[in-house]
Amino acid sequence: MNDAMPKWADIVLIPLINLALALFVSGLVVALIGKNPFEALYILVNGSVGSAYGWGYTLFYATNFIFTGLSVAVAFHARLFNIGGEGQAALGGLGVALVALSIDWPHWALALPAAVIGGMIFGALWAAVPAYLQVRRGSHIVITTIMFNYIAAALMVYLLANVLKVPGSASPETARFIEGARLPNAADILPWVGFSRSTPLNVSFLVAVLACIGVYFLIWRTRLGYEIRAFGHSEPAALYAGISPVRITMLAMLISGGLSGLMAINAVMGEAERLVLDPVQGAGFVGIAVALMGRSHPLGVFIAALLFGALYQGGAELTFEMNGMTREMILVIQALVILFTGALDNMVRSPVERMFLSRRRQPEAPLPTTPLQPGGHPDDAKIEP
Amino acid sequence: MDETLAIELRGISKAFGPVQANKDISIQVKRGTIHGIIGENGAGKSTLMSILYGFYRADSGEVFIGGKKTEIPDSQAAIDAGIGMVFQHFKLVENFTVLENVILGAEDGRLLKPSLAKARKLLKKLADDYEMDVDPDAIIEDLGVGQQQRVEILKALYREADILILDEPTGVLTPAEADHLFRILKGLRDEGKTIILITHKLREIMEITDTVSVMRRGEMTATVKTAETSPEQLAELMVGRKVLLRVDKTPATPGAVVLEVENLRVVDDRNVERLRGIDLTIRAGEVLGIAGVSGNGQSELLEILGGYAKGTGVIRVNGQQIDITGSASDARTRRARGIAHVPEDRQREGLIMDYRAWENIGFGYHDDPKFNSGLLMHNSALKTDCVDKMERFDVRPPDPNLAAKNFSGGNQQKIVLAREIERNPDLLLIGQPTRGVDIGAIEFIHQQIVALRDQGKAILLVSVELDEIMALSDRIAVMFDGRIMGERLPSETNQGELGLLMAGITEDAA
Amino acid sequence: MDFLGVIQLLDSSLRLATPLLLACLAGLFSERAGIFDIGLEGKMLASAFFSAAVASYTGSVWIGLMAGIGASLVLAAIHGVASITFRGNQLISGVAINFLASGLTVVIGEAWFSLGGRTPQLEGAARFQEITLPFANAVRDVPYLGPIYADFLSGHSILVYVALALVPITWWVLFRTRFGLRLRAVGENPAAVDTAGVSVVGLRYAAVMICGVLTGIAGAYLATALSAGFVKEMSAGRGFIALAALIFAKWRPWYALGATLLFGLLEALGNRFQSLDLFGIPIPTQFMQALPYILTVVILAGFVGRAIPPRAGGEPYVKER
After folding, report:
1. Neighbouring subunits of B (3+ Cβ pairs under 8 A)
2. Which of C132, C137, C135 lies closest to C155, judged by CA?
3. DSSP B5
4. Using CA atoms, how far apart are residues C21 and A206, in angstroms rounded to an integer?
5. B460 CA to chain C: closest CA distance, Å?
6. DSSP conformation letters of C39-79
7. What is the DSSP letter of A352?
8. How far apart are CA B305 and CA B121, in angstroms?
9. Residue B286's beta-bridge partner residues?
10. CA-CA to B264 of 20 to 30 Å: which in A84, A158, B147, B440?
């Protein structure tokens, strides 16, 4: 019940407490392996937002996570758990690379929209198969999307090692994209900010912001969004209202896969400027944490993605500056964020709710004469595929 | 210490969040009696008894069993104190056998074999003693509800319960089955067991109980000897004011045929035929009531007419045949044909409980051009529409921004009704219009249904409440096991005759 | 392929099926009690790391096994707290546990051994050795039956036989004991168990902990019997494949044996035929590597039919009102 506490507590206070808990436990892990957690935190913060260089990377990572976070969030609204962002983004990379390599693009402004379409279509198609198997064959979408991640990884190795690599070269990657298919980076667009020329931050960030706005309209303003949310809340009610579960599952997964695929314009077109092995680097999985923390709302996803962007950049600095620290520390923090915001949410929520309830005993809404729905909060149900 | 009291509750209070379900309730139940507890939906009867059974914990108050103060923190403690409970929604493991369900939690040792053998013997004896014949090896989901209820009673008796609580036990029974149940209960009482019967049906209270307690809005308003009271007095105690138990209506003036159904069949996903060839006709300006014990195909009838079950047969609306098998058969196309539907379960189907009232007011009609421009929804149009409907249907509180789950049952039903009626349909399907609805709202809803009929709409009313069917219908069809057993005029029939039909007994057989 | 080739293939199928079987039975206990567990993968991985790390420190594989089980139990307890006590989303909890294991094994591994996430190579008593069944050498020359006994059934580590023995034990516990009856009931209708006076929470924790022990053995087997040490991400999706096998097996112990043997055979085939010509067309190695995952999808989509999972599966128990 949202009514037990004010809205700000629900969307700001509780995620913050969850995050603090996750960071605290991460600090314990750092201390446990014999490092100073405060020093680690300092390096992390300084490395991510302490310089224009740091910001360049932080926002670059955040761009990836906005796309994958939105991807998971859209599926959540339809009560689908898409763990396949990793594979969908990899395939999106294939789509983007094919677009970039197929034509002599005169200017990036033409290449970008085409690459957006290419990335989305390939990502969407990779999500379409598990979605179709769920609606037609009853396969569990969680397991099939995970399997599709493994299959995508093998497929990409095969394509890069045998089909797409530059003839004569040993490295499994495509040729570098031509000038007209490279995205301008932040140093070109905003020279006065002081981003270095090597910063990977590029115009894709703006595409990501547009995607946030687009998803907001999709979910809360369009008829499709109305139907997606209705289906996510109650499948029997959707049937009663003439909303087809097959159609909604397919569309939600196509959109979700498309958003994951979009990530590739940032990673493939914006940074590497060629298709390399595993351009996704776990960003598909980070999307789960981002969507959970952002409560599946585009604004929340945007903020959570910034946070994880900082975490990734700061984490990278950490491995440089702290001996014996590995990148996987980020994975630990990510896992703890998912755990506290996603699975242990009630642990924080119940005491906070009780606190607010005892503060104002007088309920604003009139007493219902029939009982309300049992325990938990609506978000619990929303994300049960 | 009073030895003649089986149960005494003192000052029991229980709140669920902001809802006070029980307020300072005290009650005494004499040993060897049948004690009725009556009250409207949501009056707190089930909560009180669930506390006694250890299913919920009271916030405050004391429980005395056999004159001794007893703590009941969980159901095990209640069972140890000799209490058994038959819940309204049975607590049975559907794919276990009867025997397994009976011993669950009351096994004799770590291994099942000896427990099962012992239970089989005891079950046989209990079944003989109380004429409750149940096959111990049957799987629960293959049994009818009446049989399942017996398993629940046997479970309690197997645990040697002295006090048996039954929560709305007749809701799922035919009148004949209910009579049989009452015979069993009287037999148990005569043996010295104490029975507590929770119900909202005045007739049952008058028929079987020795004493009756009345609850209203979480409070105990009175406890009286059944012989010294009347249904009218109890009704007034339940509601707190005089109630109109009859619906005023003029005779129907049926017009052209709106709905024709021929040989309609539905097979469910477990391959059980739920509708076995239904034929019916409804004309404009009349109410066809479908009576029957729940689970005899009424839900499937509503679902296929409403567009979300598939089947075979013919459905014609205003003379035009409707596709009921193809891919184009869904609730959307039904609405386009002028069929509106107030579903049986408004919380699961009729409303999205987390949607605000204004979002719900367009639910199912959200692709109406009034509410969207193809791509975007017109949220402001929905809100205006919602404010308007809330006023005309007296929805309280009239706040379009409140989520559906925060309205009372009656007001939720008014939102659904407002949405469906206001579309000016040719045919209105209504399932259980007053289930979980307070008496004040019942009157309003009944009046709306009659008014709609008088405007010349065809109405299909499905209800398990015979009183409601009798009061509202112009013709009554009785369903049993997926078939229509017969059609009667309300003026020319009575509850006894309908009850026989509900049990599947026709004149020819009788 | 000759007869001995077939025997070798079967032998390696059994080896590869063992961790799947253990994880599948682990999932069976958990899901029969109504708790979905996609964290099998993570628990296996954590156990693999800790068993290898501790075995390499102490030189004793048995202490390593205990450590592995311990690590798996800790993660199982987290899953229990999240999904039983705080009624959180079981899928999300499982995902978190998988990431936690992926991260922690490497972070701690690097801190302890500085080998890029690996543990040192295990040797001697720090590894489970192969056991030769009685008379294996004596009967080897008996045609057909001899090699089947000596080369297929004999010569596995003790954990393989433990896994096989667990199949009838699981069946017996589930269908012949009071605990099994209650466990199955709590996965079908927890309210029935609650009103019968039995603790839903207690039963579900018991199931989740049994699941932790079995996945712990599975993980230890990976690192100390199948391989000789821990390698980053060595569980390689086996936890998920075990779940697919569980669905394929319709949550039944004997079927689980069949399903995991099938998946073991598929993996063995993939290993044996790294490069394969099919009617003159070379099959890429990547395809053979992806084969278990592809077949998992195919089997889930095509051959499961109508599997009915435990009805209360995935739903936290809230007393209805």
Report:
1. A, C
2. C132
3. E
4. 49
5. 30
6. THHHHHHHHHHHHHHHHHHHS-HHHHHHHHHHHHHHHHHHH
7. H
8. 48
9. B458
10. B147
Amino acid at position B353, single letter:
M
Instruction: Return all residues near B380 (Cβ < 8 A) that are at least 6 apart.
Output: none
Tens of pLDDT, residue by residue over A55-83, are: 999 999 999 999 999 999 999 999 999 99
DSSP state of B404: G
- SS3 at position A358: helix
In a domain, B301, yes or no: yes
Q: Which long-range contacts (CB under 8 A, 24 or more apart) does B65-69 make?
A: B65/B6, B65/B7, B65/B163, B66/B3, B66/B5, B66/B6, B66/B31, B67/B1, B67/B2, B67/B3, B67/B5, B67/B8, B68/B1
How far apart (Å, rounded) are the C-alpha atoms in residues C117 and B14?
55
How far apart (Å, rounded) are the C-alpha atoms in residues B331 and A240? 6
Sheet holding B5-16, edge to edge: B19-30, B5-16, B60-65, B68-69
Kindly state whether residues B203 and B309 are assigned to the same domain: no
Cβ–Cβ < 8 Å for B451, B287: no
Phi, psi for B446 (deg, rounded to 5) = -60, -45
Rounded Cα distance, C267 and B276, in Å? 50
* E strand or H helix at B468: helix B466-472
Quote the tokens at residue A236: 């029997």
Q: Whole-angstrom Cα distance, residue A321 to residue A332?
A: 19
Same domain for B56 and B197?
Answer: yes
Tens digits of per-residue pLDDT, A14-41? 889 999 999 999 999 999 988 999 999 9
Q: How far is C197 from chain B (nearest CA, A)?
A: 4
- The answer to whether residues B235 and B263 belong to one domain is no
* Domain A57-313, CATH: 1.10.3470
What is the spatial distance between Cα B273 and Cα B311, in angstroms, rounded to a whole number?
A: 10
Q: Are residues B122 and B68 in the same domain?
A: yes
Q: Is residue B478 part of a domain?
A: yes
How is residue A67 written in tokens? 């796309």
Instruction: Indicate the average pLDDT of chain B.
Output: 89
Task: Tell me the domain boundaries of chain A.
Answer: 57-313
Chain A interface, mutation test: which of C84, C98, C297, most A Cβ atoms within 10 Å?
Answer: C297
CA distance C246 to chain B (A): 19
Q: Which of B182, B208, B239 corresponds to the end of one domain? A: B239
Residue C86: how many CA atoms within 13 Å on its side-chain side?
25
pLDDT in tens, B450-480: 999 999 999 999 998 888 899 999 999 999 9
Are B32 and B194 spatial neighbours (Cβ–Cβ below 8 Å)? yes
Place of tokens 């069809």: B477
pTM: 0.89
Residue A379 has pLDDT above 80, yes or no: no
Kindly state whether A323 is in contact with chain C, defined as any CB-CB distance less than 8 angstroms: no
C103·A374 Cβ contact <8 A = no
Partner residues linked to B285 by β-bridges:
none
- Across the interface, of B20, B333, B351, the residue whose CB is closest to A237 is B351
Could you tell me the two tokens for B421?
């009626």
| B233 and B266 co-located in one domain | no
- Cα separation of A79 and B92, whole Å? 29
Residue C251 — pLDDT band, cuts 50, 70, 90? very high
User: Mutual orientation of helices C3-32 and C178-188 as an angle, nearest 10°?
Assistant: 70
Q: Tokens for A365?
A: 């809404």
Q: CB A366 to CB B354 under 8 A?
A: no
What is the per-residue pLDDT across C186-229, written as a single tens digit (0 to 9) for each?
A: 999 999 999 999 999 999 999 999 999 999 999 999 999 999 99
**Which residues in chain A have Cβ-Cβ distances shorter than 8 Å to C81?**
344
Instruction: Identify the helix (H) or strand (E) that includes residue B384.
Output: helix B379-392
* CATH number where B359 lies: 3.40.50.300
Phi, psi (deg, nearest 5) at residue C261: -65, -40
In chain C, the N- to C-terminal Cα span, in Å, equals 64
What phi-psi label fits residue A276: left (phi over 0), alpha (psi between -120 and 50 degrees) or beta?
beta
Q: Sheet harboring B83-86: ordered strands across?
A: B83-86, B163-167, B194-199, B34-39, B211-216, B219-225
